[in-house]
Amino acid sequence: MTHTFYNIITLPEGDDTDALKAWAAVGEFMEKQPGFIGSTLYRNRTAQRTLINKGLYETEESFMACVKKTEFQKLSQVLTDLGVERVAGLYDEVKQYGAGGN
For the whole model, what pTM was predicted? Predict the structure, then answer.
């Protein structure tokens, strides 16, 4: 069973280049972490400042180990300093509809 992490992201007004670069740095860090399976970043078509990141991890412990690392904390602080708002957490599947629900 994989563990799914969702992060709802609101980018600050204006040029989002620095925020997306900072987000890429987080992704590159996570790719190297044990237990990280992969992630996908989605942008809302009509509300361009809103993104959702879906990350998959082998275990909850592997996810927690990643986010507790000092390097992750520093990368996350860059996003905060740029004004990127985030609502994040691990989620459990409640119900799936259709074959393509994932």
Answer: 0.87
